[in-house]
């Protein structure tokens, strides 16, 4: 027997909607404009949405995940499989339009994760994110068509509220990138970081920084670590990566690379799943914090790691009896 939902008192209807999962609410929202209005006014704003512009995921309060993907055939619409995946017809045939719609009907103010492969997708989403004042926890940008699109992507990133992670994987043809990152999340990962200069690094406020294939030289590294020694990088907890410019010709914190300690230190951090392992030399800053620095010189990409010990870390040390100095690959 059909149920006249709109005859329910508003408070009771809100309680009914609280018991529904995303699939059920999405289907109900298609019934009428009045239902959508009630949904938007009564839904809690604690769900999170993710999208890679192929599918849309919704994570609920208890971390249950629901996925919406494009139906390959009209008769498959609204079918749900055992993997909590519903097939739907995206609004106007576009993932972005359905994403905007779901943000409204589910009352979401937080995006869990966004992954961009095409600049136009990022451009369209940035307008939605800025207009709705969304918090985006994680933002992943893959290879853009060209360096100009990548540079423009950085400008869009600066306008959005990205809080936990920015991950960039575009390989530039020139190290000159007009736009720079000016708003930093908790963690910054750049897999082709030749364009990320020391000037950028010096203003970075991220707690975790990963720079692969960088052009940081000894002077740059010393300048950055000297800033930490003065206590001017209070957020920094780890910086790791590789560089084509590090060598053994000039000192870093008055030590000539390779820089490697005899003690194997394992650091288990509450907020990180996998422990850090480092053969680091201990350094201290003006606030009494201890850090471990390791630099291994190799013919192509030299590796560096700097980890700041936090009072909540679990630290174990083991003397390496086979220690012979820094590795040379």
Automatic annotation (TrEMBL):
InterPro entries cross-referenced by the UniProt entry: F-box_dom (IPR001810), F-box_Sdz-33 (IPR012885)
F-box domain mapped to chain residues: 2-50
Superkingdom in the source lineage: Eukaryota
Pfam families, sorted: F-box, FBA_2
UniProt-recorded name of the protein: F-box domain-containing protein
Naturally occurring in which organism (per UniProt): Caenorhabditis nigoni
């Amino acid at each position: 027997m059909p149920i006249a939902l709109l005859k329910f008192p508003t408070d009771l209807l809100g309680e009914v909607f609280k018991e529904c999962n995303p699939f059920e609410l999405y289907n109900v929202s298609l019934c009428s404009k009045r239902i959508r209005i009630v949904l938007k006014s009564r839904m809690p704003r604690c769900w999170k949405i993710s999208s890679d512009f192929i599918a849309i995921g919704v994570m609920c309060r208890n971390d249950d995940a629901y996925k919406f993907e494009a139906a390959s055939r009209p008769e498959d619409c609204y079918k749900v499989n055992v993997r909590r995946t519903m097939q739907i017809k995206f609004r106007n045939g576009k993932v972005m339009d359905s994403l905007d719609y779901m943000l409204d009907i589910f009352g979401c103010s937080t995006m869990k994760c966004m992954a961009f492969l095409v600049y136009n997708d990022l451009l369209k989403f940035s307008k939605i994110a800025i207009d709705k004042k969304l918090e985006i926890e994680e933002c992943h940008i893959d290879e853009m068509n060209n360096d100009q699109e990548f540079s423009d992507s950085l400008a869009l990133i600066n306008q959005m509220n990205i809080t936990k992670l920015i991950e960039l994987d575009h390989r530039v043809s020139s190290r000159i990138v007009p736009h720079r990152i000016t708003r930093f999340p908790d963690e910054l990962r750049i897999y082709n970081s030749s364009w990320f200069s020391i000037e950028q690094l010096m203003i970075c406020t991220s707690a975790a920084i990963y720079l692969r294939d960088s052009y940081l030289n000894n002077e740059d590294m010393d300048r950055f670590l000297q800033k930490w020694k003065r206590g001017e990088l209070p957020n920094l907890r780890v910086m790791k990566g590789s560089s084509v410019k590090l060598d053994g010709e000039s000192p870093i914190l008055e030590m000539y690379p390779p820089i490697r300690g005899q003690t194997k230190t394992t650091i288990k951090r509450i907020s990180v799943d996998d422990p850090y392992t480092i053969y680091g030399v201990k350094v201290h800053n003006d606030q009494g914090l201890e850090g471990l620095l390791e630099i291994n010189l190799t013919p192509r990409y030299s590796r560096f790691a700097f980890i700041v010990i936090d009072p909540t870390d679990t630290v174990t040390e083991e003397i390496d009896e086979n220690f012979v100095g820094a590795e040379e690959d």
